[in-house]
Amino acid sequence: xxxxxxxxxxxxxxxxxxxxxxxxxxxxxxxxxxxxxxxxxxxxxxxxxxxxxxxxxxxxxxxxxxxxxxxxxxxxxxxxxxxxxxxxxxxxxxxxxxxxxxxxxxxxxxxxxxxxxxxxxxxxxxxxxxxxxxxxxxxxxxxxxxxxxxxxxxxxxxxxxxxxxxxxxxxxxxxxxxxxxxxxxx
Length: 186
Known about the structure:
Elements: H1 12-15, E1 43-46, E2 52-57, E3 67-73, E4 80-84, E5 88-95, E6 97-102, E7 105-110, E8 114-117, E9 123-127, E10 133-140, H2 145-152, H3 161-170, E11 173-179, H4 180-183
C-alpha cells in the first residue's frame, strides 16, 4: 500500500502569530526570553482576604501563556467561592494544609500536593492549619495577577462588595458564594 501524498506544510510562524519561530537545526527559539525570580522577589500585593499574593510571573513576561503567583494565606482563611471565566488554575501546596472545593468535590491537600480547578468551575480554598500556609498558583492563560493589581488601587481603606465585584468582573472572575469557612465550617 502506498502512503498518501501530503501537500506543503503550513507556515508555523504564521499560524502561531509570531510566538514561535521556525525550527533551526535542532533548536526551537521563541520571542520570549528566559528569566528567573528568586524567593521573595515577586511583586507583593494584598488580596481581598487581607492575605498576600506575590506575582512571580505575569502576562507581559510570559506573552500571555500563564501567571504564577505565590499566595501566603493566614490560618483558617481563604477566598470566597468564585469562577474564572477563562483561566484554568493549579494550586500546589508549598507549606501547610489546605482544603479545596471545586464544583461538588472537596480535596484535602498537604505540602507537596496539588489540586486543579478548570475554568468555569466554582471553587475556593481554605488554609486549615494553625500557621500561615503557602500556595504556588499557576493559571493559564495569564491574567490572574490583574485582579490583585486592580484591587491594590482600591486600597487603603475598606473596599465595598460592589467595588470588589466590579474589579473581579473586569478580570474574568465572578464571585458566586461565601468562603469555605462560612459555607462549610471546620
